[in-house]
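2024-03-11 09:14:02 DEBUG pipeline.ingest accepted 1 chain
2024-03-11 09:14:02 DEBUG pipeline.ingest length=354
2024-03-11 09:14:03 DEBUG pipeline.predict start
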Amino acid sequence: MNNAFIHFDKVSKAFGIVTVVDDLELAIAKGEFVSLLGPSGSGKTTLLMMLAGFESPTKGSISVAGKRVDALPPYKRNMGVVFQNYALFPHMTVAENVAFPLKMRGLSRTEIVERVTKALDMVQLGAFQERRPIQLSGGQQQRVALARALVFEPEVVLMDEPLGALDKKLREQMQLDIRDLHRRLGLTIVFVTHDQTEALTMSDRIAIFNHGKIEQIGAPSEIYDHPKTQFVAQFIGETNLLTGKVVRSDDGIADVRLDDGKIIKVRTDLDLPAGKGVKVSIRPERIELNSTAALENRVNVSVSDVVYHGDHLQVRVLANGRELIVKSDRKATPPHLGDEAVASFSQDQCWIVA
């Protein structure tokens, strides 16, 4: 990325003999919202802590706006940090908590009052200045932590699982609030999460972490619709993985013979020789049951399970002993256990993964 604002250049981090981040390259543009998504122990939080200055790289360099920061202490990096546990001072009022980083920077009392008022209004807590953290709900405390991270107008805001302690409704509202602040203020945000929906909802780009490396980075739609690896396909969203071998590949479409002999057509951007073993990823909502549409791939199946999920039905079907999961529109006639059906899907809605 030529317009990189934050750049991790071949960064590694080891704790003893364990390498947590492994020769990692990552470039983030100014004003971008990038989520680091992955399972526990994949290296995403360690990378964020190195950017914040709480950990140092074992190898490589980190730069912001063209200047190396990996040797600078945290307070010289001009970055706001929001943690999952809020890290508010219980003995201070809301206003005093938000004012704290400004006092540490020696700003005048008048400017502190103006900035604190502005920051609290921004997170809709202007009327709560004199309350203490214990008098606030979890969502309100997280808003105070966010205001404190923004009040000194940092170049970058770092968030480490900031919504993990909130209930579902609050978490969803805070996702929208943070996304709105990002857009209005033009913030550069690096956001660590293990929640797939959170990353898909909020991010300009998502970096999928696995064993200290980035398996894939891209826009949410690219990551979800065109996963490059089996790990990515399975980690973000649900998927069906079919095993087979390439019969032929031409002009971005591969004919794949599945283990049961059935041949399906699959979209791919890989150069695949005949006979190569592959995995095919198909999202459950891309499969239709008994569709009248002219889709390239059609498989005879029998219904083995139907689960009600409110907005859709999760239907499990068997095709020659292979199980597929289908998300079915609840408006359609619901299938019943043992029903024979045809599962169909487009060549453009399935993808070969490494």
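2024-03-11 09:14:41 DEBUG pipeline.report Helices lie at 44-52, 94-104, 109-122, 138-150, 168-185, 196-202, 220-225, 230-235.
2024-03-11 09:14:41 DEBUG pipeline.predict end
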